[in-house]
Design brief:
heterodimer; A: about 210 residues; alpha/beta; about 25% strand; B: mainly alpha; about 80% helix; elongated
């Protein structure tokens, strides 16, 4: 399996935000995107996830012969948690597990196992809105586990997390990489994973 | 897909879901008509079906702007856009859930409100039947409007205005069929069949247009 971007560029309004970004990841590799605020990290991740159109270039996920859009192989954890405050954590996770399940693919983790993996077992019966910001973030991470996707795209995953949760998340990422997964993360803090490629975004340098 | 249907139905009855707002609005509109028109029972029973239709149309436009906006605000829409499931299907299921939670209660409430309008039994049944068949079309048209206005913070009124001209044919054939059921010379079946045709057409076009608009509006 390979996840690759070739000569990507994207526009925000009039100006090119970045140009000529290329990288390739294969099984078990991670890419950390760093750079100052406003340098286009989130935009790059949204382009990779197929949520924003790129100006030029291609994003591809290569796995065997079948050519499917790269976004279908990806998990996207953005700034927002994509969980409903009114539903319980269990209802939220069950919904995403069912909705993201692919036919013929291996199912993801059980809801309780996933909650335990993020260190919050036993509170899945609570409405999501009752949890603290850090707990909400951790439950959003559990979403990565209940459905399997080879590529994780993470935008500032560890914002609002304490040190212990940071370590927990590094463990999750390590496990994902060890299973042959791939990971692209934009972050300011080190993720605590070894052997990562780094991509530094420079911002409006190329602006016309 | 069943998961999505159940989730949306659950959300509509939890706090802030707003499934009952439409019914309350419908009741408010129809309940004040007799006071405004006066105690002319013949007149009331004649204008009954159109009034119920207008009330139901306006009430079903009421909650439409939240159809995709709520999912966009918490990031769920991003994930829905990324899945292998065709977006058209996702939109269709969301429309179905919206119709079940917001429009079906209107259909169920309509016989009760028909009492205010002094309508006879045949007229009540005909109106409820035309509402049952016609309101899905309004939801499907509304989905396209809601998708266009998804990124606007106060898009509620805009959605209604965008959608209103497209719903006029539904109103004409719906109210026409309901009216024809009690007025002898005009036939019931032709407008009713047109109404069914409109619903079927919009069930295809609406989700398609909404899916296109959602893909284009992501930022």
């Amino acid at each position: 399996m390979r996840f690759e971007a070739q000569a990507l560029s994207a526009r925000r309004g009039e100006d090119l935000l970045f140009r000529d970004i290329s990288f390739a990841l294969s099984d078990g590799e991670a890419l950390v995107v760093t750079g100052p605020n406003g340098s286009g990290k989130s935009t790059l991740l949204r382009v990779l996830a197929g949520l924003l159109p790129q100006e030029e270039g291609t994003v591809r996920f290569v796995d065997g012969a079948e050519d499917r859009p790269a976004r279908e192989a990806c998990h996207y954890l953005g700034h927002r948690n994509a969980m409903k405050r009114e539903l319980t954590v269990e209802e939220n996770l069950t919904f995403w597990a069912d909705f993201m399940a692919k036919e013929g693919a291996a199912p993801g983790m059980d809801i309780d196992e996933a909650a335990e993996a993020v260190g919050l077992a036993g509170i899945t019966h609570l409405p999501f809105g009752y949890l603290s910001a850090g707990q909400q973030r951790r439950m959003a991470m559990a979403k990565l586990l209940v459905a399997r996707r080879p590529v994780w795209i993470l935008d500032e995953p560890t914002a609002a997390l304490d040190v212990k949760a940071d370590a927990m998340f590094a463990g999750l990422c390590q496990a994902h990489l060890a299973e042959g997964g791939m990971l692209v993360a934009a972050t300011h803090q080190p993720l605590g994973i070894e052997n990562v490629k780094t991509l530094v975004m420079k911002g409006f340098e190329y602006g016309e | 897909m069943t998961a999505l249907l159940l989730r949306d139905l659950r959300l509509s009855i939890r706090a802030g879901g707003g499934a009952l707002i439409g019914v309350l609005f419908f009741m408010a509109v129809v309940a004040v008509i007799p006071f405004g028109v006066g105690p002319d029972l013949n007149l009331l029973s004649r204008i009954g079906p159109p009034i119920l239709w207008i009330g139901a149309l306006l009430a079903s436009l009421l909650g439409l702007d939240r159809l995709f906006q709520a999912d966009r605000e918490d990031g769920s829409l991003d994930l829905m856009l990324m899945q292998e499931t065709p977006l058209v299907l996702t939109v269709f299921v969301k429309c179905l859930a919206h119709w079940l939670s917001h429009s079906l209660p209107l259909v169920i409430a309509s016989p009760l409100l028909a009492l205010f309008m002094n309508m006879d039994a045949l007229s009540v049944v005909a109106t409820a039947l035309t509402l049952l068949v016609g309101t899905p079309a309004i939801t499907f048209i509304g989905a396209a409007g809601a998708a266009v206005a998804v990124s606007l913070p106060r898009g509620g009124l805009l959605v209604s205005i965008l959608v209103l001209p497209l719903t006029i044919p539904v109103l004409i054939f719906g109210a026409g069929a309901a009216y024809a059921a009690t007025q002898d010379p005009s036939p019931f079946l032709p407008p009713f069949l047109y109404l069914i045709a409109l619903t079927l057409i919009f069930a295809v076009i609406g989700p398609l247009a909404a899916a296109l608009a959602l893909r284009a509006s992501s930022d």
